[in-house]
Amino acid sequence: MNDKTSNTVDSSSENASGSNAANSEARTAPRNFIRQIIDKDLADGKHTSVTTRFPPEPNGYLHIGHAKSICLNFGIAEDYQGACHLRFDDTNPAKEEDEYIQAIKRDVSWLGYAWSGDVRYASGYFDAIYECAVELIKKGLAYVDSLTAEQMREYRGTLKEPGKASPYRDRSVDENLALFEQMKSGEIDEGAAVLRAKIDMASPNINMRDPVLYRVRKVHHHQTGDKWCIYPMYDFTHPISDALEQITHSICTLEFEAHRPLYDWVIEHCTLPAVPRQYEFARLNLNYTVTSKRKLKQLVDEKFVSGWDDPRMPTIAGLRRRGYTPTSLRKFCEMVGVARADSTVDMGMLEAAIRDDLNQHARRAFCVLRPLKVVIENWPEDKVENLDAPVHPQNEAMGTRAMPLTREVYIDREDFREEANKKFKRLVAGEEVRLRYGYVIRANEVIKDASGEITELRCSYDPDTLGKNPEGRKVRGVIHWVSAKHNVPCEVRLYSRLFNEANPDKVEEGETFLKSINPESLQVLTGCLVEESLRGVLPETRYQFEREGYFAVDADSEGDKLVFNQTVGLRESF
Ligand code: ATP
Ligand code: MG
After folding, report:
1. What is the pLDDT of residues 111-156, one digit of tens each?
2. Residue 57 C-alpha to ligand 1 middle, in angstroms?
3. Catalytic residue among 57, 131, 135, 572
4. CA 317 to chain centre
5. Is 293 near ligand 1, meaning CB less than 6 Å away?
6. Domain boundary among 480, 503, 535
7. What is the pTM of this model?
8. Residue 455: how many CB atoms within 10 A of its CB?
9. Residue 436 belongs to some domain of the structure
């Protein structure tokens, strides 16, 4: 509400000016280093088509960082007429839940992407992965280790010191096969043995120091039930899954770069139907929020937010509820680009993306957030005049909306002052203002209650001011209003940033990211009044409340009780 200035003529536009970069509708495929690699692979005949995959672990809802990965993987498939698979990386059964699987599918679809074929699960390949493990054992390239977890850590060495061989490293192939079988059949306890690749305990890359391939986990799995009590590690599962699905370009974030030699080692030594390659790009980080499922889960579990889809969350579900459109998120990801250097993107860029989209497409409406009653004393008691207002000031095709004007109306408390200087372009006692799309009114009398609070304004209107300015008098500005008889009461939820620090992860020893949480990130306004034409609107419908910002109908709305979430302000405010 910090900027309500406007001209006194209704034809003026009050649209936010966002970044023009997001304005262009034309979709030109962004060039990035991954697309250059693909272009070359196609030109060289290394591949004749492109297959990518998006491989979320179902241990939380997707966040804006995942949106970048989705746009990259599915976007490439779209542009190259290839395929993109949705594959749940579900090798860690204890932390995974079906709720997350459903939410992830919903989010990908909502963003406007369609995965190729059925949803896939890494767990769907457990038989094949097991066969690869047996193959490695038979080739003398994997062994069952019986060191404790702590011993294994000691033996692994450090960045400066090489590791040393486990005493079990030279078990015979037969012994390893027998022990691995015992792991599989449940005869070996959790933690008592693991299967390790036999690579190089002196490798400068710690990931290559005989990494664990399989561990015993006696837990139920949401897809495979109780069939398995050994589960393959991510680093073993991923290359095999990619090869089985004939993925050509396996795109992941930079933290996997040091895992690539292991990825290639698995592909090289197991008998598989294809040779996928891994490419890494930089994660998306946004300031004033966190993008880690673990931390987001903590915010949910410890009730700092109402759920994974709380409109303050940087999750796709949260942004959706907040009023973001799929188009705006895709545009944002395009603006961010794909590079190999880590960087943090300003939240303002995300906000500019949705502002531009809504500025172009959202219907306009009046909503009075803090109602103050105005009685127009020279307006006949029962007279209703249906004024015409455009649904969108720049898009006539969107039509008009009827704005019934009656003797009693509400305006926003912040649009009135008993006294004000020239900068206040709203209603002041004894002066005039235009009711947008209607007449000019003058505030003649201010009524207060015993405590001195203003309860009502007694005004008069000038019937000769519809669509034209009065002659020889100055009107301060234009304000919005709703009829006291024709309106829908509603609740409006205003949001500010969830964290007060640009980088909540940067904390002193002993502190956590929770330290900079903003206790005032949600402000609930009740008793707001929205114009009559919004009666019965459905959740997720988005509006520009003129002079206030962009808002979306929340799913908490019930019948005639509407709830709106503030999506973003009209202009950049930070
Ligand atoms: P988190 O750190 O939030 O738990 P994750 O990387 O463990 O995320 P996954 O479910 O494993 O989450 O991620 C699925 C895919 O999304 C992976 O390919 C991962 O590289 C990618 N991804 C995750 N976070 C980001 C991010 N911030 N920016 C870009 N891509 C991301
Ligand atoms: Mg992960």
Report:
1. 999 999 999 999 999 999 999 999 999 999 999 999 999 999 999 9
2. 8
3. 57
4. 6
5. yes
6. 480
7. 0.92
8. 11
9. yes
